[in-house]
Structure formats: structure tokens, C-alpha cells
């Protein structure tokens, strides 16, 4: 997959982007669009919201025609619903974008190319469809053999607690120090941000570990592969994806991600979040199958639901509980986590 930042030309999807929010009900539903707006703001010219859309990115409100006139090259469907399906409204707006001369990209489980009307419109107008949740063919089965290089994997107490943000923040912090570090995307938003990756949740189960090995092959330059985690070992729906990543990544280091204001697993009100120490120990035990020397190096908190003073207290409390640096990557940075990573994994 090529870097979309170099692809904004006729016949290629890529920025500048119009971020489509549709009829999203809450912030979690627009995490793909929000991730792009946060990490690649220079790529995003505006947002398109239907009248009943509740969240906003704070970008200029634009129609498809206005976005095209402002230089947009691709409309990114940045909203998702349960199951990742395309509503009739999304289909209609995707076709309208294609008719206006925009390419269309999406990270939904239901592919753009699976809708005959969208495909016909793309062909009719010579536009490109890009499905981020489209794993490459020929993925291997994981073999568990040790390979050269150093790797960090983010893990979580739940889904959507900040694993992608944390991984990208660590990459940015390490690069500012002049260190070789590369974000390895495993989800649709990360793939759109990075321009490459493998959508792990779309990989057949037997090949998840192999996909993780593929995305972070042997590395001989002394640098770090920073692998975006998915799901949670404690989420009944998605634990399998998390386990496959733990085995295939062979991580030298883990960072635990958590949202302290959440009271139950996303979408499952009958399942409370796991206790932090138990969750961290379970992830370390699973990772030890393919890397017996794996270490926990930090905790990343999403404190967006807390007042600033309460966020500081929460980080201090968790740091003392787990004896690890604990920071909010967005409001506090990740310098203490990177310091501990380099100290723990110096050799």
C-alpha cells in the first residue's frame, strides 16, 4: 500500500480529505475521522455532517461540492456504527461524492466495493474506492520464531481506550529524540493515518499472529516497531484479536491503555472493566509465549472525562499501584513512558 500523502493526483485516493461524519451519535462513532483530524490536520479540509449528527471535529462545515472546490481529493467515511455497515444515507452520500469527482475511502467492515451502486458510480466517473479493512492476500500462519528487532505493543483494558493515540504519541516522542521508531497500523484509522498496515480485525483467525509477524518483520537498524494494539483480552467479543497480536508481535515492551471513567466493556454493560493489575499480568503472561523477556513499561490513561486535577491524581494513583509511569498521551505526553522504555530495554 502506498503512502497516500504522495497520492493526491488524478486516479489516486489520498489527501486532501473531506471527513464524513454522517449521522454519528457520539464521539466513539467518529473515532476514525477524529484520528485523522488530530494526527493529520494538514490533510483535512472540512467535515460533512447530516442534520442529526451530534459530534463535531471543529472543522469547517462543507458540502461535497464546497469540499471539492476547496481542493478535497477524497471523502473519508469517518463514522462507524455497530457492525460497521453502510446505511442507505452513507451509500447515497458516497455516490454523490463520486459524482462530484472525489475518491472515497472507508474503514467499515462492509466494503465499498461490495455495494454495486457505489462500484458502478466509481467506474462511471473514473474514481477510486479504498477499503482500509482489506487485508493483503497471502498472509502466513504465525511461526513464533524469534526475529531481530525491538517491538512495543499497546494493550488495553477495553476497546477504544487510546491504543492508537498512545502508539502514535510514542512514535512522535521517540523521533523527536532522534531515535528510529515506526508506527505499525493494525486498524482502519491507523492505516489511513499511516498510509499502510494490516486491518487485524479483518484477518481470518488462524492468520492473526502471522499478520502481526508480517507487519513487524526482522529489523536490523536498532530501531523500534511500535505496534498498534486492538481490543482487550478481557472483552468477550474481541479477545481473540488481542491474543493473536500479543503472540505475533513478540513484543519486548507493553504499554497498558485505560479509560478510568468507563464502567463496563464497550457495548457489554454486564461486563465490568478488569482490575488493572490483573489485566496487565494477563497480557504479560500471554506475551511471554513468544517473548519470555517481555516487560511492562508504562500506562497510558485517556483522561478526557476527568478534570485536570483529577487526571493528575488518577495518574499518580495508578503509577503507584503498578509501579510504572502513567500519563495521558494527549494532555501530558509520553516522555516518562519513553524514558522507562529505553531504560528497561537498553540492550
TrEMBL record:
Gene3D superfamilies from the UniProt entry: NAD(P)-binding Rossmann-like Domain, P-loop containing nucleotide triphosphate hydrolases
Superkingdom of the organism of origin: Bacteria
Annotated Pfam families: DUF1611, DUF1611_N
UniProt cross-references to InterPro entries, sorted A to Z: DgcN-like, DgcN-like_C, DgcN-like_N, P-loop_NTPase
Location of the D-glutamate N-acetyltransferase-like C-terminal domain: 141-338
Domain D-glutamate N-acetyltransferase-like N-terminal span(s) in chain numbering: 57-135
Record protein name field: EBNA-1 nuclear protein
Provenance organism: Rhodanobacter lindaniclasticus
Highest classification ranks of the organism: Bacteria, Pseudomonadati, Pseudomonadota, Gammaproteobacteria, Lysobacterales
Amino acid at each position: 500500500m502506498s503512502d497516500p500523502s504522495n497520492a493526491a493526483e488524478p486516479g489516486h485516493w489520498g489527501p486532501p480529505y473531506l471527513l464524513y461524519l454522517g449521522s454519528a451519535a457520539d464521539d466513539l462513532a467518529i473515532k476514525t475521522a477524529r484520528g485523522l483530524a488530530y494526527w493529520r490536520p494538514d490533510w483535512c479540509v472540512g467535515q460533512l455532517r447530516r442534520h442529526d449528527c451530534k459530534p463535531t471535529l471543529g472543522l469547517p462545515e462543507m458540502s461535497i461540492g464546497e469540499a471539492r472546490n476547496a481542493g478535497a481529493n477524497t471523502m473519508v467515511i469517518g463514522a462507524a456504527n455497530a457492525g460497521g455497515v453502510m446505511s442507505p444515507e452513507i451509500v447515497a452520500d458516497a455516490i454523490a461524492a463520486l459524482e462530484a469527482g472525489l475518491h472515497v475511502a472507508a474503514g467499515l467492515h462492509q466494503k465499498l466495493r461490495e455495494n454495486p451502486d457505489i462500484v458502478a458510480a466509481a467506474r462511471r466517473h473514473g474514481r477510486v474506492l479504498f477499503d482500509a479493512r482489506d487485508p493483503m492476500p497471502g498472509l502466513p500462519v504465525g511461526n513464533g520464531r524469534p526475529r531481530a528487532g525491538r517491538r512495543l505493543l499497546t494493550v488495553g483494558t477495553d476497546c477504544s481506550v487510546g491504543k492508537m493515540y498512545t502508539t502514535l504519541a510514542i512514535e512522535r516522542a521517540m523521533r523527536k529524540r532522534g531515535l528510529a521508531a515506526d508506527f505499525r497500523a493494525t486498524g482502519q484509522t491507523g492505516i489511513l493515518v499511516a498510509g499502510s498496515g494490516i486491518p487485524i480485525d479483518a484477518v481470518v483467525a488462524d492468520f492473526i499472529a502471522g499478520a502481526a509477524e508480517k507487519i513487524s518483520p526482522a529489523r536490523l537498524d536498532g530501531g523500534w516497531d511500535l505496534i498498534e494494539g486492538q481490543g482487550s483480552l478481557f472483552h468477550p467479543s474481541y479477545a481473540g484479536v488481542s491474543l493473536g497480536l500479543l503472540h505475533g508481535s513478540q513484543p519486548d515492551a507493553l504499554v497498558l491503555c485505560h479509560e478510568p471513567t468507563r464502567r463496563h466493556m464497550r457495548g457489554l454493560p454486564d461486563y465490568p472493566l478488569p482490575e488493572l493489575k490483573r489485566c496487565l499480568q494477563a497480557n504479560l503472561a500471554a506475551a511471554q509465549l513468544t517473548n519470555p523477556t517481555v516487560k511492562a513499561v508504562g500506562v497510558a490513561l485517556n483522561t478526557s472525562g476527568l478534570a485536570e486535577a483529577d487526571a493528575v491524581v488518577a495518574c499518580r494513583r495508578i503509577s503507584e499501584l503498578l509501579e510504572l509511569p502513567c500519563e495521558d498521551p494527549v494532555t501530558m505526553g509520553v516522555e516518562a513512558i519513553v524514558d522507562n522504555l529505553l531504560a528497561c530495554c537498553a540492550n
